[in-house]
């Protein structure tokens, strides 16, 4: 069996993301000294495109949405932290940006050798993920991508 040292899991709190995280935990248990990076990525720009820009006053809506999305992402990360057993080394990551490119950047920055993710992750705020992030990562990642259904 392959052993992994650093696994990254894009996480948005959906059932598929939870399944992916549980799969990553099982893979980490089979590897020696494996660390899991759990990444929540907020795509504020995608969320804002659904609003008429002239209706946004002085950025107050953008500020409120940003705060709400950050709060939701941090809630998801707290939930994810409860899924991972204490004996598995893990780190929570929060970023703002387009999920596909951000996950690729994080996977390189943290020298990950595997991405484990749910097949579709449109959560409570549709702007969190736009389009198929799994498809984006499958076509562009230099490391293996394990998609959990």
From TrEMBL:
CDD domains: USP-like (cd00293). Coiled coil: none annotated. Residues 3-149 form the UspA domain. InterPro entries: Rossmann-like_a/b/a_fold, Universal_stress_UspA, UspA. It comes from the Bacteria. It holds the Pfam family Usp. Belongs to the universal stress protein A family. This is Universal stress protein NhaX. It comes from Dialister micraerophilus DSM 19965. The lineage of its organism: Bacteria, Bacillati, Bacillota, Negativicutes, Veillonellales.
């Amino acid at each position: 069996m392959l052993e992994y040292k650093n696994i990254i899991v894009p996480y948005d709190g959906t059932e598929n993301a939870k399944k992916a995280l549980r799969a990553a935990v099982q893979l980490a248990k089979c590897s020696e000294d494996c660390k899991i990076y759990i990444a929540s990525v907020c795509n504020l720009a995608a969320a804002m495109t659904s609003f008429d820009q002239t209706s946004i006053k002085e950025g107050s809506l953008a500020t409120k949405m940003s705060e709400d999305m950050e709060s939701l992402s941090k809630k998801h990360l707290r939930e994810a932290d409860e899924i991972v057993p204490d004996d598995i080394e893990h780190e929570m990551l929060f970023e703002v940006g387009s999920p596909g490119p951000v996950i690729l950047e994080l996977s390189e920055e943290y020298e990950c050798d595997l991405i484990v993710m749910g097949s579709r992750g449109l959560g409570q705020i549709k702007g969190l993920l736009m389009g198929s992030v799994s498809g984006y990562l499958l076509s562009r990642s230099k490391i293996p991508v394990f998609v959990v259904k």
